[in-house]
Amino acid sequence: MKTSIETLRLGAQQTLDELFAQRLIPFALSVRAVESLGLEEYIVRFHDARLHSVDVSWPEGRSFEEMVRAAVLDRVSRLSYPGQREAPVRHQREQSML
Q: What is the pTM of this model?
């Protein structure tokens, strides 16, 4: 089954809207384009200075939206930006010192 790029763009945008509504990403993102890089490989480009794009691998049998969700959550977890709150992470050694 062949899926159009416009259908992929709309699915990616819906996924981003859901992530923001669920507060899983700290800012709204707007899809500018979805481009095919080759077999099962896509790049989703955004209208945003904090996050320009994500690479999405889309293996057969998985939904494109599921793969966009995973790629965006992974990438956002590695961002640093103004106003970001530090997550309280304690390492095992630090906890043993308490």
A: 0.78
